[in-house]
Amino acid sequence: MTATPRRRRSAACSLGAAAILGVLSAYQTGLLRHLPDLPGRVFDADLVDGSGEAYWVLSAADAPLGMTSFALTAALAGDRRLTRAWTAKAAVDAAYAVALAVEQPVRFRRLCAYCLAVTGLALAAFRLALGESTATPPVPPAG
Predict the structure, then answer these.
(1) What pLDDT does residue 102 have?
(2) Domains, in order of start, for the chain
(3) What is the DSSP letter of 136?
(4) Disulfide-capable partner of 37 in 43, 56, 62, 73 (CB 3.0 to 4.6 Å)?
(5) How far is 48 from 40, CA to CA, in rounded Å?
């Protein structure tokens, strides 16, 4: 099955988010000692991504889990039979990313530019998935 342009762009957004989370994973697992930030006192990726909140799920670093999650979303985008699952998964990704983005200034009074980029990509992936799911009828299962 050939993926539509929306599916390809959505998968690219999800894979882009996974790539950014790869950098954050390198920091959270100790491969990087410091995350470079944008200029300004408001940005502090080390503080945000090294916080206890970044390790609350199963006491594991959240960035590697996020990488896995976004990779799954990209995989779902490739199968037209899974349009509803893909759209729902993209919605969950976007909601979680927005919740984390809102938490940063409230809890830390700092922002992580990497995390905000992931949020933007998650929202774009969801918008594309939603557009695809409303534009095309579901494909019946093979068999």
Answers:
(1) 96
(2) 5-135 (1.20.1440.130)
(3) S
(4) 43
(5) 15
φ, ψ for residue 59, nearest 5 deg: 60, 25
Q: What is the 3-state secondary structure (H, E, C) of 20-70?
A: HHHHHHHHHCCCCCCCCCCCCCCECHHHHHCCHHHHCCCCCCHHHHHHHHH
Q: What is the pLDDT of residues 106-137, one digit of tens each?
A: 999 999 999 999 999 999 999 999 999 887 66
Contact present, 103 and 54 (Cβ < 8 Å): no
Three-state DSSP class for residue 17: helix
- Closest by CA to 36, choosing from 108, 104, 113, is 113
Both tokens assigned to 112:
């992580």
d(CA 97, CA 69): 12
Provide the terminal-to-terminal Cα distance of the chain, rounded to the nearest Å: 15
Residue type, 79: D
Give yes or no for residue 88 having a pLDDT over 90: yes
Cβ burial, residue 125 (10 Å; 0-12/13-18/19+): buried
